[in-house]
UniProtKB/TrEMBL annotation:
Gene3D superfamilies per record: Glycogen Phosphorylase B
Organism: Flavobacterium hankyongi
Domain Glycosyltransferase subfamily 4-like N-terminal: 110-234
Identification of the protein by name: Glycosyltransferase family 4 protein
Recorded superkingdom: Bacteria
InterPro entries recorded: Glyco_trans_4-like_N (IPR028098)
One matching Pfam family: Glyco_transf_4
CDD domains: GT4_WbuB-like
């Protein structure tokens, strides 16, 4: 059995989307004659905890742990709320940022390059070099963000001449929050230099979307493979569908993902249609920025809001499968066209219609339309969005609200792991 060392930051009991990709790859790699050895921090500062995921770790995986020094842990002494929000990606609107928030973002962007886990690089290289040599490992994988983990791979590649696969769950310098970090000219150049060095040193680059592949192809001639996120066969008991017409958003709802056309369309439907007003509920599951909540209230939607906060992954799957309609929102910008949220794949197998809002030519728009799992709207298509919501509601009333997906099997976690295994042998 071939041994492969996987270096990742997010690992159970971490919750949220970052942990799912490699948790599932590790689950299925032994089926393809590959022994996963997973290297993770011993004492991480995870913004979200989901202890239920610990039970999903494969008993065939070897888990290595090493201590990490995290500035987020120290920063929480001054402001636990701000630290937790920033570390989980919830960055306040620039116009509403307090002095402390501005200072924390500047420190994060300019003193910790590429990110706040950079202090783990040197001790990890020292620890892993010894382990790799002792156990004759010839292939390593690094997964980012945090992109500092790619610097571990970079150093190990240079020192030991290993086969190195760099997995990018998200882009590096073009990701949406990068510009919010108040980078100096020096810091910006250093980020780009490190990105270029990683992309041109790794043997293979793995990305999650075709747009990220095209972006990276302008920066390197190294082979780039697309392996999307996917869905797993979840053993979750689900009862009947919600009795009310529930529109559910599951996952972090960041300030920049504020679809005012949706709030306006819903507000109009509530005022124009008494039956809709009586039956409609907006379910928010996960971390939600205060700006989103304030906007929802400003459109008169608070009486219809059910804000459940963060729940376990198993409970999130239950809500996906019993909600009447699922909401997916991405930031309206050029940089987010490449983002395919991991939850979209779980949405697609929930057998509930998806209403997705994002920038024109988004990769996930093509995914939803091609699998016949929902409808996609740009931020300028309020009337079409409103008409679709009304159509879904009328089908809900008639008990005919269903979807008929096609071509989903290619996105199963096991099939995606087989694709990964082909690069590792």
């Amino acid at each position: 059995m071939k041994k492969v060392l996987i270096i990742t930051y997010y690992w159970p009991p971490a919750g949220g989307p970052g942990v799912q990709r490699w948790l599932k790859f590790v689950k299925y790699l032994p089926d393809f004659d590959i022994q996963p050895i997973v290297y993770v921090p011993e004492n991480p500062t995870y913004p979200i905890i989901d202890n239920g995921l610990v039970n999903e770790v494969s008993d065939k995986a070897i888990i290595l742990q090493h201590k990490i020094i995290e500035p987020y842990g120290m920063a929480s002494i001054f402001s636990k709320k701000n630290t937790k929000g920033i570390s989980s990606g919830i960055i306040p609107n620039q116009k509403k940022q307090t002095f402390l928030q501005k200072a924390m973002l500047w420190i994060r962007g300019n003193l910790f390059i590429p990110d706040a886990r950079v202090l783990w690089v040197k001790p990890s290289v020292k620890f892993l070099k010894k382990y790799i040599q002792e156990y004759n490992i010839d292939t390593i994988i690094t997964s980012g963000p945090p992109h500092s983990l790619h610097l571990i791979g970079l150093q190990l590649k240079n020192d030991l001449k290993l086969n190195w696969l760099a997995d990018f769950r998200d882009p590096w310098t073009t990701i949406g929050y990068h510009s919010a970090l108040k980078l100096s000219s020096y810091a910006d150049k250093k980020h780009k230099a490190l990105e270029s060095k990683v992309l041109n040193t790794a043997d293979t680059i793995i990305v999650t979307s075709k747009t990220t592949k095209a972006e990276f192809e302008r920066l390197t001639t190294k082979p780039i493979e697309v392996i999307t996120n996917g869905y797993d066969v979840e053993k979750v008991s689900v009862g009947q569908l919600d009795e009310k017409f529930t529109l559910a958003h599951i996952g972090s709802f960041l300030s920049d993902r504020n679809p005012k056309i949706l709030w306006e369309a819903l507000s109009e439907l509530i005022h124009e249609n008494d039956q809709f007003s009586q039956q409609f509920t907006l379910k928010l599951i996960g971390k939600v920025s205060q700006e989103i909540l304030d906007t929802i209230e400003s459109f008169g939607l608070k009486p219809h809001l059910n804000n459940l906060g963060y729940v376990s992954h198993a409970e999130a799957i239950q809500h996906q499968r019993k909600s009447q309609v699922l909401l997916l929102v991405e930031i309206d910008s050029e940089e987010t066209k490449s983002i395919i949220p991991g939850k979209v794949f779980e949405y697609m197998v929930s057998e509930r219609p998806i209403v997705a809002i994002g920038p024109q030519d988004s990769d996930f728009a093509e995914l939803i339309v091609s699998t016949n799992t929902g409808s996609f709207f740009t931020y300028s298509e309020k009337e079409r969005l409103k008409a679709t919501l009304l159509s879904h509601f009328e089908k809900f009333v008639a008990k005919e609200l269903k979807v008929y997906p096609v071509g989903l099997q290619q996105y199963s976690r096991k099939n995606l792991t087989q694709k990964l295994a082909n690069f590792l042998k």
